[in-house]
Amino acid sequence: MAVQFALQRRLDISFLRSSLTFAAGLLLGGVLCVALLVQAGVPADMLFEDLVWQVFFQTDGLAQTLTLSIPLILAGLSAALALRVKFWNIGIEGQLWLGAIAAMAVSINGIGGESYRWVLMLLAAMAGGAVWIAIPLWLKERFHASELVVTLLLTNVAYQLLQHLLFGVWRDPTQSFPISPAITASERLTKLGFGNLHTGLFVSIGMVLLVMWIMERSRFGFQSRVLGANRRVAEASGIAVGTTLVVMVLLSGAMAGLAGGLLVAGTEYRLTQHLGWNMTFSGIVIAFIARFRPFWVLPVAVVLAGVYNAGASLKVFYGLTEATVLLMQGIVLLSLLWCQFMAAFRIDRRKEVTV
Fold it and tell me: Keywords for this entry (predicted)?
């Protein structure tokens, strides 16, 4: 005799069940991350100070955390917008690099007046990211190409273009490293007098509010929710599927491009080889933890920035590797996915059968 088990989707998931499983996923991921850090050699009695107190309650640490969160907020919005319509954007880094290149092109070519050139740089960054994601969108709609593969491959193309510029026409001849010339003081975003934090924070918060309105208040938000749930139903309901898809996906690319523009104008002041690394994975993690809700992208991005900030200190004082920090993100994401899966399905025991 053998017992059969089957997964059965729950027809209705209560808010309480959903909230409890989400909290359980975060708790499970946190416990596993603590165990990982202790195993890696971090003293258990120093975890609270290194992971929480230093990065969120000390002035210098909080300023650095908020500065790191600026591009992460936009990366999370980019992932949330694309995944809302089931477009798997795995090329956030590529769109970020194109945005940074476009912003730098405005500076190098002296487009517009110096007093407002930073605005043109950010607009060009958004356009660069939107153009770069438009390529896989067109290939998907025209030839049914997998956007997952195309966005991933275009990320490599964008990186090679960045390398070509840094080792070629945009290389600063006064520097030994492959970096571009620095932008002028008038093109830089204003510092807020709190560490290196700059006005890009207000730009990213403004984008959160904009995306909140689009996804939760506009007709595109309703249409995108139906499209993401079932494209055939959306088409049968008379929803403008093509227009909705284009708007949401191009806006996703624009958010990633803007992240690159803010890194150039607010933090780095130039193009470098390591601009915006790991933004694709980080953006997807933020979007999943925030459950694709723009409002929750903001605090989740700040928390993840704190993890990065703490990770930098842990690497210096305890020899922690970059891979360990990335592994911590993966642990939290998988814990959330597993708990949410268990909230959506239940295990149904079938009758015993004779084998």
Answer: Cell membrane, Membrane, Transmembrane, Transmembrane helix
Q: What is the pLDDT of residues 266-293, one digit of tens each?
A: 999 999 998 988 899 899 989 988 888 9
Q: Which residues contact 73 (CB under 8 A, 6 or more apart)?
A: 204, 205, 207, 208, 286, 297, 298, 301
| Alpha-carbon separation of residue 32 from 15, 174, 334, 337 (angstroms) | 26, 47, 11, 15
CA dihedral of residues 75, 77, 78, 79 (deg, nearest 10): 90
Beta strand spans in 91-229 (E): none
Do residues 73 and 90 lie in contact, with contact meaning Cβ atoms separated by under 8 Å?
Answer: no
Neighbours of 41 (CB within 10 A): 10
**187 secondary structure, DSSP code:** G
What are the residues whose beta carbons fall under 8 Å from the beta carbon of 71, sequence distance 6 or more? 96, 204, 259, 260, 262, 263, 276, 279
Is 252:85 a contact under the CB 8 Å cutoff? no
User: For residues 78 and 71, what is the distance between their CA atoms, to the nearest angstrom?
Assistant: 10
Listed in sequence order, the residues at least 6 apart from 304 whose beta carbon sits closer than 8 Å to its beta carbon are: 69, 72, 282, 285, 286, 329
Q: Which tokens hold the place of 224?
A: 């995108």
Instruction: Give Cβ neighbours of residue 128 (< 8 Å, ≥ 6 apart).
Output: 95, 98, 99, 100, 101, 102, 103, 257, 260
Q: Which residue carries 């193309």 as its tokens? A: 157
List the beta bridge partners of residue 191: 198
Does the pTM surpass 0.85? The reply is yes
**Which residues, in sequence order, are bridge partners of residue 6?**
348
Write the CB contacts of 161 (distance below 8 Å, at least 6 apart in sequence): 97, 98, 101
Measured at the CA of 102, the angle between CA 96 and CA 104, to 5 degrees, comes to: 105
Query: Residue 30: which of 324, 281, 336, 317 has the closest Cα?
Result: 336
